[in-house]
Amino acid sequence: MPNNPNNTVVSRHVLSVLVEDLDGIISRVSAMFTRRGFSLVSLVSGKTEHPKINRITVVVDADEVNIEQITKQLNKLVPVLKVVRLEEGTMVARALMMVKVAADANNRPQVVDAANIFRARVVDVAPDSVVIEATGTQGKLRALLEVLEPFGIRELISSGQIALNRGPKTMAPSVR
């Protein structure tokens, strides 16, 4: 990760944020990052096992001082129930990617084989292309793209990262 002008080390952080399922919460969270100029890498929101509670996974590049400030600012937002910083090695993190690859009758078997090596799935086949769906770490998805690149990537979309702590530890919400 790059250093900032103050020579403090900037690194990638993953925050898991439990929020009440209210209209506009994503806008409020993203606005907090915009107002303070933090480098937001991805923000993904989804339902949880609790009705009316969503989990937002935030990936951000920041130094230690800024990540503490981000955590404090998130905790100040009224619909936020809990903020947990997930640590590398103690979390399971995945992203979703869909990629349309040029594939005709001649090279389609090689494209499908490449997808299978990465445990990806072919979800659509057309006469001149295939759409592949893959989930995994950012490194795995980058590696798959490197293998598919020689065939010709026509379109690509990737979700942000989602993550959970490993083992029995959970983010039980403290309902307000």
TrEMBL record:
CDD domains: ACT_AHAS (cd04878). Keywords: Amino-acid biosynthesis, Branched-chain amino acid biosynthesis, Transferase. Belongs to the acetolactate synthase small subunit family. GO terms for molecular function: acetolactate synthase activity; acetolactate synthase regulator activity. Dimer of large and small chains. InterPro entries: Acetalactate_synth_ssu, Acetolactate_synth/TF_NikR_C, Acetolactate_synth_ssu_C, ACT-like_dom_sf, ACT_dom, AHAS_ACT, AHAS_small-like_ACT. Catalyzes the conversion of 2 pyruvate molecules into acetolactate in the first common step of the biosynthetic pathway of the branched-amino acids such as leucine, isoleucine, and valine. It catalyses: 2 pyruvate + H(+) = (2S)-2-acetolactate + CO2. This is Acetolactate synthase small subunit. One of its GO terms (biological process) is L-valine biosynthetic process. Coiled coil: none annotated. Residues 14-88 form the ACT domain. PANTHER family: ACETOLACTATE SYNTHASE SMALL SUBUNIT, ACETOLACTATE SYNTHASE SMALL SUBUNIT 1, CHLOROPLASTIC. Pfam families: ACT_AHAS_ss (PF22629), ALS_ss_C (PF10369).
